[in-house]
Amino acid sequence: MKYLDEYRQRDSIEKVAAEIARLNTRPWTIMEVCGGQTHAIVKYGLQQFLPAAVELVHGPGCPVCVTPLEAIDRAIAIASRPEVIFCSFGDMLRVPGSDRDLLSVKAAGGDIRIVYSPLQAVTLAEENPDREVVFFAIGFETTAPANAMAVFLAREKGLRNFSLLVSHFLVPPAIESICSAKNCRVQGFLAAGHVCAVMGYEQYPPLARKYQIPIVVTGFEPLDILEGVMLCLRQLEEGSCRVENQYARAVERHGNLPAQEMVRQVFEVVDQNWRGVGAVAASGLRLRQDFALFDAGRRFCTDIIARADTSGCISGEIMQGHKKPGDCPHFGNSCRPEKPLGAPMVSSEGACAAYYGYRRQEPANEH
Amino acid sequence: MNIDCPLPADTGEIVRLGHGSGGELSQRLLRDCVFPHFNNSWIAQGHDSATLPPATGQVVFTTDSFVVTPLFFPGGDIGRLAVYGTVNDLAMSGARPLYLSCSLILEEGLPLDTLTRVMSSMGAAATRCGVQLVTGDTKVVERGKGDGIYINTAGIGVLHESFTIEPGQIRPGDVILLSGDIGRHGMAVMARREGLEFDSPLQSDCAPLHRPVQNLLDAGISIHCLRDLTRGGLATALVELAETAGREFLVREADIPTCDAVRGACEMLGLDPLYVANEGRFIAFVPADQVESALAVLESDPVTVGSRAIGTVTGGDRQQVILQNALGCERLLHRLPGEQLPRIC
């Protein structure tokens, strides 16, 4: 398959691996920000192409994992209402809320539909004028433009029965939060290529300067990731801290300006609570006042009491790179994909799901 | 042989609750929509059960139910699936399929023309497989309590081989053959169901497998085990067999054929083709010294063109499937915890 196969060839990967080995003189810790990258690393076993001194730690870029408990609980409350058709990406359905997940709401009779795009939810709203259609708008800068587009479209069509339950996150503030933590051990970042395809990478040079840390915009295929590591490592060994773009075939410096403009018109930046991590200033999006009509949070006035996450899931530590899935006593024991304690075991971008799904041997029994 | 289903003129009539009552309406439904397509002496007898002639060889018996949405998809329909699915289950024991039953659960409001199209397709599929649809039943459920049509078929076949084909026969050193590219059925149905459009249209692989199996047996291949790939895809079939047989398999990902359309659709949706459904593919475990002749036999049948050797049974006693990827890295295959869910971005 063109544009993919050439990034999965063993000989090109081995060439880059050899260059990494040649450059490397001492231990380094590099974080890949996006969960899609984490999955590629684990699925293709890329760590085996790296020197033992180069450690990859997994970042916060899993939109399902960072969605706070209260957002899931609110989704469950709205999806349980008989007049609602609740539309979501498939990943969200199995994420545990305080006492159940969306799949169990569906099993109990809730009208929950898996969609591939928010525009499908707009069509559903048109086709079902006597029902309330709610789309669970989650994700990073990558999904925000399509969600903004859905709101525009709904307004243009004069739909009064369409709304978004918004739980949007911004990546650069999360990187800053990780860099500024006292116990941060990350020395270089592979930034998320798809986020940068939308937003560009002009937000990163100030971060690289402030925290003296190299940032390499990186793609998702095995060769992309090893090239990202190589560029990052070269900077680390030289003592540089620039922003580089490994993923030039998809990412331009300024990103996709019309998409950014659409997001700006529909959403405004707010503080956001990241599951397992806590509040991060100016790291989320919500609908602007002009679009309040389309805000499911306001429309359904659900009283959700923010509860503490008592599941035992250490997602916060996993997503900030402090720990790896194997460090969690529940991993593969009381926490498995069929009965997850937390989102990282559910999502196709969650680190725990990657480690469990692509495991090379069965995990040991619970300690 | 023409196996297309003829399109009857749209009469606008629909299934009513009375069609399942056993009375006059039921009779008319069978006479007009069902019997013309199941044309054989057993159906003509009009008994509650079919009396079949004595069989030579061991009798093999199986059943399967079919609930697909949409009823018609690129490359097939629920009627064809209902015949091939049960024929294939028989074929996986090495049996020659002979007779099928057909139980219909119809939803009130289903257009009779749709029923006729499905029955016509079943009849054509049965003819293609050389099996007779000899008995059946029809029930009607209220509107909203079904999905148009549910079909159950049970099948009877006979075994002529002196050896058995079953998981217990799998031996270390056996080679695992795959009868073609994977994932077509699941992606074709999903694309149609979700209204996804791809440049190159995806066709279901839905096909009967008894003939290629018979060809292998006729060629003297000592098949140790067969398994058709259905829900759960190749990965699930391998894991189930490894566990049942108590053996370890090593499978090479690079040798598993997938067409560009399936790979592209899976990449886009975040699905793994190893877990996507098939309706016309199987894996065969054969002795290493018969691999070449087995592949030559499979290559000669249009249903199994593109067959490949994808792995081996190791000497290990762990009941697991190791997948080696193109980069030489190994991981375990396992069952999915639930449905395969498309990713977000």
Describe the structure.
The complex is a heterodimer of chains A (367) and B (345). With 367 residues, chain A is α/β, with parallel strands linked by helices. Chain A folds into two domains: 29-303, Rossmann fold, CATH 3.40.50.11740; 315-357, no CATH class. Chain A contains 15 helices and eleven strands. Chain A has a six-stranded mixed beta sheet, sandwiched between helices. In chain A, α1 packs parallel to α11 and α7 (144-156) crosses α12 (257-266). The radius of gyration of chain A is 21 Å and the shape is globular. Chain A starts with 9 loop residues before the first helix and ends in a 10-residue tail after the last helix. The mean pLDDT of chain A is 92. Chain B has 345 residues and is of the alpha+beta class. The N and C termini of chain B lie far apart (46 Å). Chain B is built from nine helices and 13 strands. Chain B has a seven-stranded mixed beta sheet, sandwiched between helices. Chain B has a four-stranded mixed beta sheet with strand order 1-6-4-5. Chain B is 29% helix and 22% strand. Residues 1-9 of chain B have low confidence and may be disordered. Chain B folds into two domains: 17-159, 60s Ribosomal Protein L30, Chain: A, CATH 3.30.1330.10; 167-333, Phosphoribosyl-aminoimidazole Synthetase, Chain A, domain 2 (Alpha-Beta Complex), CATH 3.90.650. At the A-B interface, loops of A face α8 and β13 of B.
Tags for this entry?
heterodimer, A: 367 residues, alpha/beta, six-stranded mixed β-sheet, five-stranded parallel β-sheet, 15 helices, 11 strands, 19% strand, globular, B: 345 residues, alpha+beta, 60s Ribosomal Protein L30, Chain: A, Phosphoribosyl-aminoimidazole Synthetase, Chain A, domain 2, seven-stranded mixed β-sheet, four-stranded mixed β-sheet, 29% helix
Provide the CATH top-level class of the largest domain in chain B.
Alpha Beta
- From the helix content, strand content and strand pairing of chain B, which structural class follows? alpha+beta
User: What fraction, in percent, of the residue positions of chain B are helical?
Assistant: 25-40%
Strand order of the largest sheet of chain B: 8-10-7-11-9-12-13
Kindly report the spatial arrangement of strands forming the biggest sheet of chain A: 4-3-5-6-11-10
Question: In angstroms, what separates the terminal alpha carbons of chain A?
Answer: 44 Å
Helix run count of chain B: 9
Domain unit count of chain B: 2
Question: Class of the largest domain in chain A, according to the CATH hierarchy?
Answer: Alpha Beta
* Multimeric status of the protein: heterodimer
Number of DSSP strand runs of chain B: 13
Give the helices and strands of chain B as they follow along the chain: HHEEEHEHEEEHHEHEHEHEEE
Q: Radius of gyration of chain B in whole Å, from Cα?
A: 21 Å
Please tally the helical runs of chain A, counting DSSP H or I stretches of 4 or more residues.
15
